[in-house]
Amino acid sequence: MFWSSAIRRQPAFREGARLMAPVALGIGAWGLMTGVAMVKAGLSPLEAVLMTVLVYAGSAQLAAVPLLVAGAPAWVILVTAFCVNLRFVVFSLHLRHYLMHMPRWRRLVHGYLTGDLSYAVYTRRYPQPPATQDERDDQEAYLVGGYTVNWACWVLLSLAGVALAELIPQRWGLGFAGVLALVGILASMVTTRLQVLALLIASATAVAAYSLPLRLNIVLAIGLAVMAAFWIEQQLAALSRRRAGEAG
């Protein structure tokens, strides 16, 4: 973790932090907008600060806050937040092979602090789990360096948004700027045809179901995109097995 001097001394820590730095502006814009949005939606500054530090999930926060303010049922809020963050289940399943040699408490800390972009940068740098102790130390330092920058940019600017919420007028359009920044960052992570298809399905569903109450269009969009991508992936795998059998 970033408080460990042994990890910070690793060259990979500095490399991970350096490569994450260019996207810090987008993360910061999203965090600032989220901080402002939480206060503007009706949360107290203390509630917004606690949500920033404890939840640490911008998309889930923005989806849950209007539901909290509207007095939506708890199950709707929980299901919405779960669906919005469903991608982290996939991330954790993938990272399991990288981190299983660590104690549970250490894995939990890494899981909490690893965000979308730090995960993407890390797995792109290390497509295979470590095989030796030196590789384990190197990969952990790289992961920590990346998510330290990610976490610091998000939390500091989100807290700045909470503090400055009453001074920042709505006409500045921070929400739109934050959305554009996040869309630009996430679009660069879509690298396969299946991911593009899932993105198109989710986008089309969210727009088509926009009239649903309590932002259930988000839940529906994520659910359909995940199920469609999973079904297509299974069909492609079955087709590949059939072709391999015919070739054999």
TrEMBL record:
Cellular component terms per the entry's GO annotation: plasma membrane
Keyword Transcription regulation attached: no
InterPro entries membership: Brnchd-chn_aa_trnsp_permease (IPR011606)
A Pfam family that the UniProt record links to this protein: AzlC
Keyword Ribonucleoprotein: no
Transmembrane spans: 20-39, 46-68, 74-93, 142-164, 176-202, 214-232
Signal peptide bounds: none
UniProt membrane topology term: Multi-pass membrane protein
Protein's cellular compartments: Cell membrane
GO biological process: L-valine transmembrane transport
This protein's UniProt keywords: Cell membrane, Membrane, Transmembrane, Transmembrane helix, Transport
Family note: Belongs to the AzlC family.
Protein name, per record: Branched-chain amino acid ABC transporter permease
Lineage: Bacteria, Pseudomonadati, Pseudomonadota, Betaproteobacteria, Burkholderiales
